[in-house]
């Protein structure tokens, strides 16, 4: 935005599969503390774009930078240690792990005592330290557990009472909350949320929306894919519209909403841009 | 130079034979994403039904073929309906294991009905030979080629251009969507299984005629080579299976030409590993396809493990520790010694397959590496036995992990296939690397177990030693599972995509799991070597790997106590049931099937 | 030995497959039910029963009844049962019957070791026979040696087997004896000068090959190529091209009957016309059945043959065909038949005490044997020297004595 290096910048990012161009020369900038939403009909390439940014897939062309440094094609593991956290469209929690363990995994990249960054023998040291468990390791583990409890507390009574239950036994909405909690445990610089309220009812959606607003207020930089346009309008600093792999509009919420190209794209796909499956949330 | 022509022709001829199995496998994989380890057994059934038809009923060739195809198709339908369909909503590991169990059951039924002696299966075709190169081929070669290529072509056309064929492909891509589109998914599966089974049965008969020999050992060989050919060509790709088979035949043939017959299978499995490493989707997939849709749903059955309280475990350990003090027979102690050694292997496998989700079918290779290392150190370098065994463990950890690492990038059943191949490769290298391992002659005169200079020769002392080592390894593993590594391993198993997104490097953690597991298995192998005083390449074989896997499933994937309980059960029960000696393997196969169907999480639950 | 034999009997609980000659399925089922009933009453039964003269003397047999080598276990039983018929017809062992208890080891060392403990702990078992493969046999040797029970091997051929201790005895023909006979046949009698040797890549196959090559060289022939193959192999065409390229004038097969038959067939299909000379391990009616026309003219060096005039062989073949429905016996039947006869001879001298049985092996002299003519053990090696020799050829689909004419 205004002169400072954007936290995230995409230039000409492209990805084709066979004959299909899923992502077509996308340029995007995200400043520190901004919340940008990406909207568009199904199949527009939004999740693919997320995959390209988070390393799950490699662009065929173009460049991605994080905090000014090139991260194009970096593996997801590496990006995690650089503070990039994401959630998934289908909600991917670790089913057989407890809520606590799920969220602890979020903090994995931050482990120091048990993961000395020494090349070559580092992994063996990690094994040894895990078995021996010296005080430094125990202390770190305890600290992280406290953090997890604090994060879970943000969700009120939803998750804390279930902290030791396996994730597969949770309701769908709770599983998605665990996903967010896990992302927060990473202490991200950049948070990518892929349809965090998909399949949620209005109350649950409202809670999620409030949480995201809170996170934004705390200064977190967020990239959001969503279909619920009211939510998008309320939360976003900017909205980007994709259709068939291309960016067809970008700007403030209202402007984008009334952009004839955008309406065309949605209508052409049989959807109305004012579709909103929630009533006005109370407060 | 004409020899190369002959080698090429021979390679194609053998490839021809492999193609028959591979096409059936490809077809089944294409529709249900399942590697049918029972295909070789259907092949076997076909061969024996053919024998009955030709030798006892004297039917003409056409009738024989129809009879064999019909019976085999029926068997296929039964397998699909009762063995696999109940598992369709179960976890992905279940059908893989079910087909292994089915193969045991079928093979044993054939053996019990017909006896294990090989039999001749006369060809019913005229005995003319055609000159080709410097050798000859006969009408059977042509018939086999016709059936192989013909069925591949027919299937290709069927899948591409007919309505039912489209239904088949739709089901393969996305079962739920196909159902919603009105496809009768069950009927599709049945049809395909029936066709693939009929093809498999006829293949078995043709190959039996080709070699004029059928016996119950044909089944495993056929499956192994068929799987290699199919994976090389691209799983699910029917024409690819034919090409993959030809390629396999050629590679084997040239390998023999260049290095000698004993290297034949080594080349086959190396080809497989090469393809899996460089082109996991097979040779005919484009290099940068869309990443396969992240396999949704867990590989492991969600379950609440049975939590055994600490005091109960302590009592059990104490009871077993004190057992030799009671007036029990050395036979019982020996049986339990076998259980403790298997238990160490099971601990290792439950960590790797259960906790990390890498279902390894070649784990016996780790035993072999540990055993040979320990034996050689103590035989050639006079290293004290205790130290040698530890070195065996370390070597197994290091070398084993290194050898298995090509499988780290693979997922799902490909891991199992790759590890199976690696296990076979280790065994073949041991067989051929004579300067070090003595080849088939093996190592004899291995010094007995001894600790700090004291020889452990009585059943009691060996029992205590192996029990102590096992308990120690179990405690360490428990500690490991309670650390951050435990949750990291399990995260990778449950969802490796999400795991990576949160900083877990898959290679690193898979390697760590194999390092720890390799150590446990290597120690077990080392102890066995000193116990048996003689080992060769056959001592630690694929059967051991499959036994260990059954133990792990029985106990509960990832469950340490379960691994030990499972070992005691699967070693103890066959000893108790020596009375039913001929039925043991059959019962074993049935147990596996029942487990997979009704309690895939095992007795004590997965962790 | 373990003092807990009383409890041992209880722990071994379920009764075992006690084999008497000619047991039908019905008998076996009855025996199972009977055994279970016995177990229920079992604990109180006095163990002094084994001294009762009406009870048979028990041999323990460790061998493959299931698994990849199951066919050989079945052949063992045929040979044992035939021998037992004759032994009983001749009055048994000093008036007592002889019987064996066959435990399925699947040729797996883990199981053979457990079976060894079982036999050692069971006072009824006076001697053990088996196992089939070398790993299974040799893994169990330490237990037999320490437990003081004779381990009598008769098909396991690893040269180091009897080095396991003085309780290890073997009538399996040493390859050091057999291969020179084969070499003589191939080189001196058939006049082959350049040999290609195909052998199973097992300890037996390799040892045999090494001895053969040595003997052939001593006889003045050249071994131009040797190819070791895995026992389950079915396709030999490429191997045979390699063989062909080495330009041999004869092929030597160190194989069992199944692989031998396959090689012979494929050799002809690949265009090889050289003379084939095979080791005794192919000698079996199955070789003829599986090989068909392709084995016509194959030479085999065996220990006996169908028309062998020796009385022990005539008796063996005639009784075998009578008992088993006109089927001809093969090498494995012969080994087990001989083994059982040797065991009986040992028991007649040594009684039922295990140590005395061990010592009796040396006292046994000239036991009639199909394989050796007569059996006397060499005290230094605990093996038998001097196997019989017959040079056969397949003629019109039958085994016949070679008449000395080139084929």
Can you characterise this structure?
The complex is a heterotrimer of chains A (283), B (607) and C (407). Chain A is α/β, with parallel strands linked by helices and 283 residues long. Helix content of chain A is 37%, strand content 21%. Chain A has helices at residues 46-54, 76-81, 99-106, 122-132, 135-153, 172-185, 202-217, 229-235, 253-257, 260-268; strands at 8-17, 20-30, 35-39, 61-66, 69-70, 84-86, 190-194, 221-225, 238-243, 246-251. A 6-stranded mixed beta sheet of chain A has the order 6-7-8-3-9-10, sandwiched between helices. In chain A, strands 2-1-4-5 form a 4-stranded antiparallel beta sheet, with helices on one face. Mean pLDDT of chain A is 89; it is low at 275-283. Helix content of chain B is 71%, strand content 2%. The longest helix of chain B has 31 residues, at 2-32. Chain C has 407 residues and is α/β, with parallel strands linked by helices. Helix content of chain C is 43%, strand content 19%. Chain C is built from 13 helices and 17 strands. Chain C has helices spanning 5-11, 25-42, 70-89, 109-121, 134-147, 175-189, 203-218, 237-245, 257-270, 285-291, 311-323, 331-350, 354-363, and strands at 18-19, 57-63, 98-104, 125-130, 151-153, 168-170, 194-200, 222-229, 250-254, 275-278, 299-302, 367-369, 373-375, 377-378, 383-384, 390-395, 398-401. In chain C, strand 2 (57-63), helix 3 and strand 3 (98-104) form a beta-alpha-beta unit. The longest helix of chain C is centred in the first third of the chain and has 20 residues, at 70-89. Chain C is globular, with a radius of gyration of 22 Å. Residues 1-51 of chain C have low confidence and may be disordered.
